Amino acid sequence: MVFEHLHKLLLFSFQENDFIEDLGPLLEPNAVSFSFDTLGWKVSLVCVIAVMLSIVFFQMRLYFKNKYRRMAIYDLLLRIESPNLENYHKVNYANLILKKVAIQVYGREKVAKMFGEQWLQYLDSKCEKSELSELKIVFENSSYNLKQISDSEFDLVLERTKKWIHQHAR
Prior knowledge:
By secondary structure, this protein is mostly helical. It has eight helices and no strands.
């Protein structure tokens, strides 16, 4: 049964090849010339240029819009490089920079009256995973008690301050 089916297929394929031979020789079309002079290429070029210009425009706008972030981090890093400052002074300056940036972005009415734990929770609410409120004791010791801050605590404050400045929501 299988052989009969296979035999029928082979006969059909041979008959089909005979039909193709009866058609005659294959006629190939002439080669199509390629040129950029057509209207479609010009429209494509205009579209590509428009997309590139819009990308550059939006990137430049984002760059200028985030200038305050770069300036705040520059100011922070410049100030903390002073060798004669104690770590608690540097932590206070980091807090001051956070306050300046927050006032610039969210307005003086909301930000200026906040301090302590409320202030740190507000900062955490504006930036995902900044975790500044975990450093409440460090900020309190530097601001109110003027206690010495270890280098590891200061490094943690600096890291999270930079993270908040880079990533806070507008």
